[in-house]
Design goal:
Elements: E1 2-3, H1 28-31, H2 35-45, E2 52-55, E3 59-62, E4 66-67, H3 83-95, E5 100-102, H4 111-120, E6 128-133, E7 135-136, E8 144-145, H5 149-163, E9 165-173, H6 182-194, E10 198-204, H7 208-215, E11 222-224, H8 235-244, E12 247-248, H9 263-272, H10 276-287, H11 300-308, H12 316-323
Parallel strand pairs: 4-5, 5-6, 6-9, 9-10, 10-11, 11-12
Antiparallel strand pairs: 1-9, 2-3, 7-8
Length: 325
């Protein structure tokens, strides 16, 4: 990551933050009763053994990252209700050993990237900011792809300015625009990489055939698809990433707004004295060595619970029951 100087200070708006779904099963609170010790252990675990992954083969990150979509307002639109808390969440993530932060220009739009820069500049050494472009935001909860080359080039420049960086470590095509040939969209992003503005390129919501096609245009380092223990539509994409050594970043890793409801999840959570969300994160980390979960939240408490999930050790029997969900 190369940090840039300068930037603008945005104005503040009072927009209600989306409520985080915080169901805790059995003794989830007890898991964090000794929070300082557990969090220190989870942070240490984040930096050793198979908890590390090298994006693009040369960019090491802890496998449990942070998704910065929900530090924005209701409907992923505008500023959060508590902007100070949003900044605290980002800072706390880094304190706990998280060094992969995923965002996008469409989150807000723009506000997530601005808040990350507010919270972290000057950026600590080793922090990887991954962002995305290629979705427009006509309004709250609305997303429209735009893969036109000139638009994507402007997106890259806009993200660099908001994040106050000279180079983005991981820039992802947020969606493949069905109205624009992939070759044109990725060709534009490749030009920005050649200009030194991007280090690695990623894709989102794509299958193996699209990944193969994309790799004929530019090197691809990561794939970000919706994936969790109850939604494995993109299992074929995950297997492709395992085979090719690409990072797989599951969005909605704990089920998003609908949550996780399977009985096996609740049973394992009770056995582990944890929440179903902590179990879901632990399962992802155990399920694949290329998995880079990026759970997001607008709460420091929920963030600490998510990070603590990195310390959970699921038994073979528990993994078997969850694999069967």
């Amino acid at each position: 990551m190369i940090e840039a100087k300068g930037g603008t200070e945005p104005s503040e708006h009072g927009v209600t933050r989306r409520r985080f779904v915080g169901l805790t099963i059995g003794g989830g609170a007890a898991l964090l009763a000794g929070r300082p010790n557990l969090l220190r252990a989870a942070t240490a675990a984040n930096a050793e053994n198979n908890s590390m992954f090298k994006i693009g083969g040369d960019l090491p990150v802890n496998r449990l990252g942070f998704g910065a979509m929900r530090i924005t307002g209701e409907g992923i639109w505008g500023w959060p209700k508590d902007r100070d808390e949003a900044r605290r969440v980002v800072k706390r993530a880094v304190e706990l050993g998280v060094d992969l932060i995923d965002t996008a220009d469409a989150y807000g739009p723009d506000t997530s990237e601005l808040l990350i820069a507010e919270a972290l500049r000057p950026y600590p050494k080793g922090i990887v900011i991954a962002t995305k472009g290629g979705l427009t935001r006509p309004g709250p909860g609305r997303w429209v792809p735009n893969g036109r080359p000139e638009y994507l080039k402007a997106c890259v420049d806009g993200s660099l300015k908001r994040l106050r960086l000279e180079r983005i470590d991981l820039y992802q095509l947020h969606r493949v625009d069905p109205k624009v040939p992939m070759e044109d969209s990725l060709g534009a992003i490749g030009e920005m990489r050649d200009a030194g503005k991007i280090r690695h390129i990623g894709l989102s919501e794509v299958g193996p055939e699209e990944i193969e096609r994309a790799r004929r245009i530019v090197p691809i380092a990561t794939v970000q698809n919706q994936y969790n223990v109850e939604n494995r539509r993109w299992e074929n994409a995950l297997k492709y990433c395992e085979k090719e050594g690409l990072g797989f970043m599951p969005w909605s890793p704990v089920g998003g707004g609908r949550g996780l409801k399977d009985g096996a999840m609740k049973a394992v959570a009770q056995e582990q004295n944890a929440s179903v969300y902590q179990v879901a994160i632990a399962w992802l980390l155990s399920h694949s060595a290329v998995m880079l979960p990026i759970p997001g939240t607008s709460s420091v408490t929920h963030l600490e619970e998510n990070v603590a999930a990195g310390k959970l050790q699921l038994t073979p029997a528990q993994m078997k029951s969850l694999d069967a969900v």
